[in-house]
Records
---
Amino acid sequence: MKIDHAKPLEYSTEENRLKILGFWVFLGAEIVLFSTLFAVYFTLVNRTGNGPAGSHIFELTPVMVETIVLLSSSFTIGLGIHAMRIGAKKAMMTFFGITLVLGAVFLGVEITEFVTYVHEGATIQTSAFLSSLFTLLGTHGAHVTFGLLWGSAILFQVKKRGLTPETANKSFIFSLYWHFLDVVWIFIFSFVYLKGMM
Amino acid sequence: MKQLFPVPHVIGFVSSLLLSLIALVVVKFDLTFASGMTILGVTALVQAGLQLFLFMHVNENEDKRSLMTNIAYALFVGLVTIFGTLFAMLWGYNMI
């Protein structure tokens, strides 16, 4: 395996470079996946049946908390990758740890929100609007949940093996995934919540 | 300590928070649907751009061309899906 020391560790071998490109192809598919869910949501947003409309159940405070928490976690994982590039393993692990904690907080707020909706009689079966809403939000939330497991595994591996071309590559790819989830959330925040409360 | 917080990242983070606050005007003020959607569209796109270029390091990749082609293609398919669906399901014939 040829290691190019002029490049950051995560790009240092050809295999690593191909893995990063491959992950971008996956993210392209994810863009399309979320587009289909947004398309369904926009189509059904006014089909509320006997259930509540978005403007009745959406609350600004938890949504703002979720947004700020997720934006912060995107920032801390960016700092984690920066620390990784200057070889600061401990700082990198701290930033990744903070990222995962913030991700868990996000998930906690989102689950609380879902529980509140259901208590208000807004379940996934109530109306076409709510089915599409829960599918869109739930798919994003499931991605975050998976990210928490994936990120923890990577953190564990970095602790055990240190910063090698393999672990750096995995960490960088995980950061791409995490930033992508943040981008998806920005669109949910803007075109589901804020548009719904307009 | 200072080298762990590079200035572009901090600026990017602060601007992303600011953009979220700017987007809030659509809720706080009584705007028309069109102007509200314009504000949301612009703030969301700028935010997405920040993430892509600042944090996801799109520009530094060696395979930048294939990467950009891939993203552009995904966005194209995504937008056609969304607006094609809206056109077929809502705008095309259902004028409620």
---
Amino acid sequence: MQLVLEKRAERSGTIALVSPLIAVGLTIATMVILFAILGKNPLLALHAYFIAPLTDGYSLQEIAVKATPLVMIAIGLSLCYLAKAWNIGAEGQFLIGAVAGSWIAVRTQGTDAGAWVLPAMLILAAAAGALYALIPAICKVRFGASEILTSLMLVYVADLFLDYLVRGPWRDPHGFNFPTTAEFDPVATVPLLIEGGRLHLGSIIALLVVAAAAILLGRTIKGFEIRVVGAAPRAARFGGFKADRLVILTFAISGALAGLAGIIEVAGPIGHLQPGISPGYGFTAIIVAFLGRLNPLGILVAGLFLALTFIGGEQAQIAMKIPLDVTKVFQGILLFYVLACDSLILYRFKLVFPNRQVTRGAG
Amino acid sequence: MELVEAIILSVLAASTPLLIAATGELVTERSGVLNLGVEGMMIVGAACGFAGAWLTGSIFIGALFGIAAGTLMSLIFALMALGLAVNQVATGLALTILGVGLSGLIGAGFVGERITPAAHLHIPGVTDIPLFGRVLFGEDGFVYVSIALVIGVSWFLYRTRAGLILRACGDNHASAHALGYPVLRIRTFAVMFGGACAGLAGAYLPLAYTPFFIPGMTAGRGWIALALVVFSSWRPGRLVVGAYLFGAVTILQLHAQGWGVGIPSQFMSALPYLATVVVLVLISRARSGGSTAPAALGTVFVPDR
Amino acid sequence: MSKSLLALAAGLLLAGSISAASAADKLKVGFIYLGPIGDLGWTYQHDQGRLALVKELGDKIETTYLENVPEGPDAERSIEQLVRAGNKLIFTTSFGYMDPTLKVAKKYPNVHFEHATGYKRNPNMSTYSAKWWQGRYIQGLIAAKMSKTGVLGYIGSFPIPEVVSGINATMLAAQTINPNIKVKIIWANTWFDPGKEADAAKALIDQGADIIMQHTDSPAAMQIASERGKLAFGQDSEMIKFGPKTQLTSILDTWGPYYIERVKAELAGTWKSEDSWGGLDSHMFAMAPYTNMPDEVKKMAEDAQAAIISGKLHPFKCPIVGQDGKPVECKGGDHLDDGQILGMNFYVKGIDDKLPGK
């Protein structure tokens, strides 16, 4: 007797709805045990992780701020992944976008440049992110070089390039040679939505991106093409869809979105260019994309949810002195449960009794 | 000449953890599974390896601890990605997050402790031969293990029936299944082998390289190992070349700085990565007939019953 | 099941009431750390300072810390979280927290902030740092005496003024003993990667350096020097455990006394925004015992230390000649002024390397 996985005839709508709840339930059960072992009050800890951040406006704002870049990058990545193009270098595209946009901010610093500065920064950042993403895409299409590897390698290159700029040519002349540009002028800064808060225009842009992606995938031929090429490459070939062109297109879009997220982060919450502008957004966004089931609305929810665990983890560290490592373990376990439960949308468990003669050749 | 020997010794030491981890991942990927959690398995291997060695005073037992820890981590991956058919990329990344957290918790008790690092081979007379004596006969055990590992894996993949079956699973799981091979079980073993190697590679860092444990000490080497597998186009022989080339560029850029070559150090640090991209493009271009990646790499397989 | 839930709820209430009672009369002091508290270097030393503070004033205060806070967009939020949790005095312990700390400080004028190693201040935001270059000067003297090859190996993290001033102080000191002394510099481009630091140390030794100096955080370089039978200086913390026959001395970050002093001021209501740049005469840092050297070298080091403390010896005493052969302007009378040292971006004569970013 054996427990095996079996594909469902069609995806289960019920499980699609309840699976996140099951996952959260399982996580809570696991964490209660872990907290008990660590000698922390499990109820207080869970309150700090999940409830406290949702109960005041400040934390809600922070969740939105944290989720903004994650959602924007993940939307772009989801298009790539739907088309089976494996861009895992969004971190590098994020950095290059930030660098390109900052170039305008640095060059116009102290001049009387007008309101065109910020829009120009956003456009240039998106363009640069797209171009940077095109390197692995073209290497893939033209030379057959694995995009997984090249896009990942280019992350390190982008990181060091940014580092070189802020320690050399772009260094703040009045900053005692510390590695950062001067603070951006107000015209080069992403406006805040609430006075005294941290919520900024970028969150609105992220929502627009989600809406645009939903329309692209649900209502347009291009979106249909992306989904078909990924899901059924042979059918796509018969349908005359060109997989190569889609690799280029989805990489460009995802690079553009990552670049845009980069400049918004720099011109928004940070306010200047410096090393370490990304705490791994490009990689975390990959998880967000899959948690959101590569669906725009799902990604929005997943991004907010992951942001919640970051904010909650910090509050747990403050309120309960729970080490950061526990938060990482908690995040890892949570991701495993969510992904595992989601698997039940497409599959179900079945008990089989070994009877090999019958099973073979059934497919 | 002495300098050349010294540089070669440094390169071997820097390359060994990459080579061990990449060899394991190569086997995993050859079976059709992409496990991006190498960094997570390595760092847990480092923490447990150090804990084992510190508690028992034996480097060998420490290495076994590292192997066991890496294997356990990979079993989580196998349960998710093979047992539950979850997307492999997402599972691998989640495994890394979990590993970083776990290693911090495990290692917290050992911060600030030190051990005696793994001993180096010394054959009187032979090891002292100038130029290549120490390179060939004066390494620590891990270096020899890494070479043996590559040779063993190469032999297994190309010279044994089991290796052929494993590669068949990676190239076309449906056919392998139709022929009656237990695809999921074979892949589980491949994933476990990858985990064991990653754990050993992680353990190498605190047991031989720098004999203390610090959170985050793998510093991205798991990702490099992943890159090397692709760089090698999934061939063990090329993996050796790739790992030593990467190690050589890493070490030589440090030497170039010491000699006072006036190039920005960020550019020097970026060289290994740029070189990898360029070489990869050149290899892919020279190769006729598209990619050599296992055809089923990263795809989900659920047997029809 | 319901029974255990009840027990949990009871525990929750109990814990809630305890924390409420203690929070009412204790001053809350917060810390933001860059690395994990177990990094054995920078963050570890700050946390040792916090522990010293707890030991001294534990009945009057409650401390909280956030570790592994990246210097990017998360820093501002983390600092604000500490404010919102009721912390009245907050230490942000890395340069990259400067702008985020300032932003939060302006938002919460009733909370006091202390930022390490930066230069921006506010009526409720102090800065604190240490004149580690004084210690580097002493190390330079020792290195020149102890080196047989006349080549020093220096592992830098990033070419920021703090590191550059350390290299210059080392060389100015070493040149007083051996005018032809050479230094080889390798930038690791990281504060913390034990493997890479070890590789850099090996490369330096292979190129003829017999004294290893580091401005990166892990004990890896000490360990390598010890294996190769060379000598080395530690960094941030006591590293003699990693090189009992190797460590000459180490610059120890000793933040405890400063933290205690500032918290006492806060408790007494006398806290003011200040710029503390403490030298050997303060308690900001200390030299680890001088070991593995002959008595006369030890005496020389101790004499230099005494002279620096008394003010008789200034490591950046004029005239100082830059790498280009031109004398450096002397803004502080007979020595460079603090601003010149704080923003140092040139090498002194005798360093063959090219300063990155120049």
